UniProtKB/TrEMBL annotation:
Family designation: Belongs to the universal stress protein A family.
Lineage, uppermost ranks: Bacteria, Pseudomonadati, Thermomicrobiota, Thermomicrobia, Thermomicrobiales
Superkingdom of origin: Bacteria
Species whose genome carries this gene: Thermomicrobium roseum (strain ATCC 27502 / DSM 5159 / P-2)
Pfam families per UniProt: Usp
Protein name: Putative universal stress protein
UniProt-listed InterPro entries: Rossmann-like_a/b/a_fold, Universal_stress_UspA, UspA
UspA domain residues: 21-147, 160-286
Length: 301
């Protein structure tokens, strides 16, 4: 049973004190009800430099204590909107949001971060930065990302169909290790391999060059574990095909891994996961996997 960590913003210095963080709540409630998860609600006080420079330190402490109290009241109200019987632990801390969240994820059992994000891609992300990108890059836990461009659901989201893109590499196949986080009951898994326009073998670290046989084998393994499975081979540019398939097949979630590079290298080399996050029609469950070691095995166990 995972521990859901849901970061929510409360910044009284901004015109919109919650930013986009509340966009995640319908999906967080659906996950909490489906997985019967423990719940942690957290707000991080990212204190502005101007406030830190106040000469009157007593005044600064009073302002921070007042801010903390407001955050706690806000999180307690949000906790009351989750399924009954799901007591929430509430954390209000001061510091760098990404560092606070990664530390908290390292301290709780089976963490699953559930975050809303602008999901900017390329140069915009390099310039503006992203707490979500930093948390994903840490590799400390899987992150259920709700892109800010998704419209609020009219009803509680249904979560029973997940798309898993696979290129035949062990890196991409590590996405299958995300599935147990969601539990097997009721999930239908659609495995997708995108055959790019330029001719090339399926990735060299997986034996063979027949993507259909490869997907059938993985589908059989997942079926034996209790999942309902389908598979599909399509041609085109990977990120575009993944987004279009998610929309056409009406999936509820995309699960994939990222190489986790940061900064300039990520922008120049490109990242399918980053492009998918920027355009996905549904939330994306993503994680930077641990490095593969020979004999360590891949895929679901």
């Amino acid at each position: 049973m995972p521990t859901l960590i849901v970061p929510l913003e409360y910044d009284r210095t901004k015109p919109q004190p919650h930013g986009v963080s509340e966009r995640v709540l319908p999906w967080a409630r659906a996950l909490a009800g489906r997985l019967e998860s423990s719940l942690v609600l957290v707000s991080v006080l990212d204190v502005p430099v101007g406030l830190r420079s106040l000469q009157e330190q007593e005044l600064l402490r009073a302002l921070l204590e007042d801010w903390r109290a407001e955050c706690r009241r806000y999180l307690e109200e949000i906790a009351g909107t989750f399924p009954s019987g799901r007591p929430a632990r509430i954390f209000v801390e001061e510091g760098d949001p990404a560092l606070v969240l990664t530390r908290l994820a390292a301290e709780v059992p089976d963490p699953l971060l559930v975050m809303a994000a602008h999901a900017r891609a390329g140069w915009r992300r390099l310039v503006l930065g992203s707490v979500t990108a930093q948390v994903i890059g840490s590799g400390v836990a899987p992150v259920f990302v709700v892109p800010a461009h998704l419209p609020p659901p009219v009803e509680e989201p249904v979560l029973d169909r997940v798309l898993v893109p696979l290129d035949g590499s062990r890196l991409a196949e590590a996405a299958l290790t995300l599935l147990p986080v969601l539990g097997t009951k009721g999930w239908e898994v659609l495995l997708l391999h995108v055959r790019e326009s330029r001719a090339r073998r399926i990735e060299a670290d997986v034996i063979g060059d027949d993507p259909e046989a490869y997907l059938r084998e993985l589908a059989d393994r997942l079926t034996a574990q209790g999942y309902r499975t389908q598979w599909l081979v399509a041609g085109g540019r990977p990120a575009q095909v993944i987004v279009e398939t998610a929309r056409a097949r009406s999936v509820d979630l995309i699960a994939m891994v990222t190489h986790g590079w940061t900064g300039l290298r990520d922008v120049l080399m490109g990242s399918t996961a980053e492009q998918v996050l920027a355009h996905a029609p549904v939330p994306v469950l993503v994680r930077r996997p641990v490095p593969f070691s020979p004999g360590g095995g891949t895929g679901p166990s």
